[in-house]
Amino acid sequence: MMKKVFLIPLLFVGLISFSQDIHFSQFMNSSFLYNPGNTGLVNGAHRILLNYRSQWSSIATPYNTYSFTYDTRAFTKTTNKAKMGVGLGAYKDVAGDTEFGTTAILLSLSAMLKLDEFQTLSVGLQGGMMQNSINTANMRWVNQYDGNSYNPLISSGEEGAFNTTPFVGDFNAGVVWNYGTSEATITSNDLFSAQFGFAVNHISRQRIQLSNYSDKLYNKFTLHGKSFVGIKDSPYAVIPGFMWQKQGPSSEFILGAYFRSKLKNESRYTGIFKESAFYLGAFYRLGDAIIPKLGIEIFNFNLGLSYDITTSGLAGASGYEVALQYIVPSTMLYGKGSSPKMY
Q1: Helix (H) or strand (E) holding 3
Q2: Collapsing DSSP states into helix, strand and coil, what is residue 11?
Q3: CA 297/CA 193 separation, integer angstroms
Q4: Domains in the chain, CATH or no CATH each
Q5: Residue 182 and residue 336: Cα distance in Å, rounded?
Q6: What residues in the chain have per-residue pLDDT under 50?
Q7: Is residue 101 within 8 Å of 111, Cβ to Cβ?
Q8: pTM as predicted
Q9: How far apart are CA 174 and CA 126, in angstroms?
Q10: Which value, in Å, is the radius of gyration of the alpha carbons in the chain?
């Protein structure tokens, strides 16, 4: 009976882990991980993005998440009406003393159709493999207590009870509408763009099993939007954004904005000097956390830092996040109406 009692919390943690995905507070810096329609929607030739998130370190073993994405546009010279986006992404998260983890590798493709001078519609499909794992070395079982204390030299009898799952297929789809104008000058930043998207993740609802416990992943639905609003005749801009996600019984809504100040404009003809900027903002995850963010753009790099300040009952469960993006410049952007960089 005691043994079953000890297993209940573990299975409960497993249920939560199976049913919920990784997430980043800096959703504007997580590219096509939440919507494959974002693949290739970049003002440049190539985009490389690294994300790291650590949370709950103040109350328990931290929950760490890592991700890498790369995307580019293909067939850019064949037609002015349609382009193709190609991307490769991978992520891994590790949670708690048992190091329950999820590893995924994803290939993303998109078709970008230029509707007119200023509008682009992108439809993306994504497929890949996902695997779950657990480390039983840190588990403690009731039969390892010798009457006085826990003794790790006593066999638990549970060796092999929890095994790494085989890789299973994972499939996602999304659509993104993009609108942008470009009126930037040496001294001002009179740009405007808007973007809205919708995505469905885990279309196949694959089944994942550890030991005798198994669960099917819920579909995840994502609705998101962002904009870049340049303040006329000034180097300043406001970048608002939101993201709503729902997966099974869980949901989250994040809303906020950055204030961006251009520090230096890119050389118009020589390209010797690259644009640089500083941004500062705050976002709010409804009912859970306030998220101050700051960042800097320099030499085609964008470094973003954020910290979740928990406002819910789980006090002390805050977390920090780092996002580093690099865009390889392109001499051929996607038409006059291509959107400015949005973060």
Answers
A1: helix 2-19
A2: helix
A3: 18
A4: 2-328 (2.40.160.40)
A5: 7
A6: 1-19, 185-186, 270, 332-340, 342-343
A7: no
A8: 0.82
A9: 9
A10: 23
